[in-house]
Amino acid sequence: MFLKVKGVCDNFFEMTYWSGVRKKIEAHLKSYNFGEIDTPILEHVSLFQRGLGYETDVVSKQMFIIESKGSSRDDDQICLRPEGTAGTMRAFLDEQSQAVTPCKVFSYGPMFRYERPQKGRMREFHQINLEMIGGASILYDAHLIKMLQTLFAEVLQIESFVLKLNFLGQPADRKEFVTALVAFLTPQVASLCADCQTRLQSNPLRVLDCKSVSCQKLFESAPKLSDFFSQQTQAQWQLLQETLHELSVTYVIDPHLVRGLDYYNKTVFEFVSVNLGAQSAFCAGGRYDGLAQQLGSKVEVPAFGSAIGMERLLMILESQKERLSEKPQPLTCIIPLTEAQNKLALHLADFLQSHAKAVDLLLDDQKTQNKMKKANQLKAQFVLILGEDEQKNNTVTVKNMITGSQEVVLQSEVHMKV
Ligand code: HAM
């Protein structure tokens, strides 16, 4: 017996739930003119080092780097993607001559991060990743946040969630702020937790979203990023808030929300649920106008996006599983009464499948009673019984498993009865 790898999940009996939720999300995205794309799971490590930042936890601690034969240069190193935005931007820059901007795309797939597994935190998890590339107006941010809020509140009907919002300004605004923040915290460095002491050197902005209560207490009197906004940044932040109000989007401003990936500027947000415990964000994102240039583009390509964590979303929706699961096609089970009818059962199954019916065959068990029991467990709506008489007369007995009624019909007409 093999055990599964730590931090991953099998999906054996839950697929109808997963695909039911996915399809609802995808239909919603398509109604906002998002098109589906797919990008590789394998990417160069340097894509994330340049895109997300060398000092981010995701890059410095959580990458699954693949030991591949034949690669000697460091920048040829390959990894399992930890997130979808950098790969999507790489692909866009490759294909941009064909794209109409803003280019709105979504993709679905597994992401990999080497984290300590806990509730809602996996090493292999799945995201629906949505990106709008080439849209500069801050009104797009409001539009897409509203789209997500409608998805969660109305389409999926999540009972309680909160949208946390913050504005990170432009790199120039942040530069002055970071200097002030470091000057404020350095004399008190001994009171910071070990993680914050390291971050103060490597990525000072990230200290702000530290979960430690004592660190948060210290930050209460720290300088505020919004005090360092230029007039233009301030005006955009105001416009975003006003527009969200006009669109009836409820949010709370969290000045300590900075997000763990360096590519963000201006808008950042997280949808959180109290039902998730410590890992409370089930969807997160923001604006990343600088990423394209980080990846080598000569011009700025403004962009905005978000990713929905499927495992966490499905945890929140657990109580609505029945409603959200994909409804299977009505099933017909074919039961030959003896081995002599087995081949006929195969032909009948082929015939029904050619008429787009969902069919299953029960061949192995000797006892008809056991076969009927299995058909029930499979939730078959119809059972087709093939005995000696039916074989001789080219007929089949159709039993409706819901009403219990039974009738004998010609095999050539059975597709009209199930
Ligand atoms: P992120 O916040 O790192 O952002 O991840 C987005 C979501 O993925 C999280 O809110 C969470 O639901 C889920 N998630 C992240 N890590 C794990 C994990 N270890 N186990 C289970 N679920 C997890 C990004 O990935 C950005 N690329 C989002 C984005 C798109 N920003 C702009 N465009």
Structural class: alpha+beta
Binned, the helix content reads 25-40%
Ligands, ions, cofactors: histidyl-adenosine monophosphate
Number of helices: 15
CATH class of the largest domain, named Alpha Beta
How large is the radius of gyration?
Answer: 28 Å
For the record, the count of structural domains works out to 2
**So what's the overall shape?**
elongated
3D architecture notes:
It is a single chain. The chain has 418 residues and is of the alpha+beta class. The chain has two domains: 15-170 and 230-323, Bira Bifunctional Protein, Domain 2 (BirA Bifunctional Protein, domain 2, 2-Layer Sandwich), CATH 3.30.930; 331-416, Anticodon-binding domain (Rossmann fold), CATH 3.40.50.800. It has 15 helices and 16 strands. Strands 1-5-6-11-10-9-7-8 form an eight-stranded mixed sheet, sandwiched between helices. A five-stranded mixed sheet has the order 13-12-14-15-16, with helices on both faces. It has a three-stranded antiparallel sheet with strand order 2-4-3. Helix 5 (138-155) packs parallel to helix 9. The radius of gyration is 28 Å and the shape is elongated. The structure holds histidyl-adenosine monophosphate (HAM). Residues 83-85, 113, 115, 120-122, 125, 127, 129, 131, 260, 281-286, 288, 305-307, 309, 311-312 line the site of histidyl-adenosine monophosphate.
Task: Give a quick set of tags describing it.
418 residues, alpha+beta, BirA Bifunctional Protein, domain 2, Rossmann fold, 8-stranded mixed beta sheet, 5-stranded mixed beta sheet, 15 helices, binds histidyl-adenosine monophosphate
